[in-house]
Amino acid sequence: MGVQQAKINHLDTQPVGRTFVRYLIPSLVGMLLMAVNFVVDGVMVGNRLGPIALAGVGIAGPVYTIFLAMSLWIGIGAATQYSQTMGAKKKKRAQFIFTHSLVFIFGATLIIGLIAFLFREPLAYALGANEETYPFVSRYMNVLLLFGFVFTIENAFSVFVRNDGDPNLAMLALIITAFSNIALNYVFLYKLNLGVAGAAFSTILAAFLGIIVLSIHFFKKSSNLRLVRFKFEKSLFVQTMIIGFPSFLAEVGISVFTIAHNITLERIAGTDGVAAFSVLNYVHSVMLMMFLGMGAAIQPLVSYYHGAKRHERKQQTIRIAVWTAVGAGVLFFFIGQFAAKPIVAIFGDFPDSIKHLSATGIKLFFIAYLFMGTNFVMMTYYQSVGHVRMATWITASREILMMIVFLFILPPLFGVNGVWLAIPMSEFLVLLTIYLYQKRRRF
């Protein structure tokens, strides 16, 4: 029996719960470390350079998110087809899909980064910079625009390694990336005094080390990933972009979320409000990464079972994932209610106004986690089985359509608290639409 056949039997015959845990734990550990790494970035910048620098890095954050969105758009779209094709036992076709996607990820992110760099000053102000924050936004953003293609390749490669049955190596790469980024941040910020540009360079260099670790997968006997001769295939490109679009939109939604909150809070509460949101956003990234880890765990499994027409195993996987997401959401909610002030204190000794805004924001915003995990899991499910319209609706509504509506409606009624409540309201309504959609399908 060959390696390929053994691996297929492993996915087809192992109990669903065990398979889910086998993918979930490495995904959660890897994503948690990346989130902690992101928070340590904020802690180091906040403690070393102060709240205005921290606000500047937060404003420039959507640039990172857009690059990540591009890698997920093509990467998840292609990896979903890769797993479906492997489930249908078409190995050569799967290898072509892998090669096709990496070429486009590299090309697209490089071109977008160079074009955006030419318009870097108006871009910084469009993201929400003001005279105080612009120098920090500019220095951080410029590094990401020129070298962002490195972490897009690393992220997409990680998705494929996970889909090729090696979640542990994907986790190891994330661990190496996280710890090296923390170490490089310390060197660049505290030893070399490179400021926020140093923090950006540490992100790029750490991602490059992650690529080196992921490359080990090519040399494993169990690997099916091979770079084959590239040839543009329009139908594959279109299908990749359609399937991956919800993932792209989800990341764009994070950028819209960040920009909209920065602009709204700058208008209502000034730089203090933006600094408070930067703290909340760093904490939110930890919880968000955990939910993303759940999605990363089920996507290869649901895609494979869908391609292999193992519908019962597919349904079992999604049931387990939903209950896991609900449990995590309840835990995160209580953390926000009882640990808001200690969490804020980690980021530095800020003025009382910023501390109060941040702590209140965490308590109100964390209500969203009661609904957010289920929304993430269901979006991933619909995307993995080809229900792209519903997946797109979930992503477009959560952090774009409904959020913007609530950011217009709630702040005039509740002030700054209305800003913090926009996402909880959006997540709740999206979950309600999922329930109604599922109920209609059953009948």
From TrEMBL:
The record's listing under CDD domains reads: MATE_MepA_like (cd13143)
What topology does the record note for this protein and the membrane? Multi-pass membrane protein
Quote the InterPro entries the UniProt record gives. Answer: MATE_fam, MATE_MepA-like, MATE_MepA_subfamily, MdtK-like
Spell out the subcellular localization from the entry: Cell membrane
Where's it mainly located? membrane
Q: Which domain of life is it from?
A: Bacteria
Instruction: Answer whether the UniProt record assigns the keyword Transport to this protein.
Output: yes
Q: Which family does it belong to?
A: Belongs to the multi antimicrobial extrusion (MATE) (TC 2.A.66.1) family. MepA subfamily.
What's this protein's name? Multidrug export protein MepA
Gene source species: Bacillus chungangensis
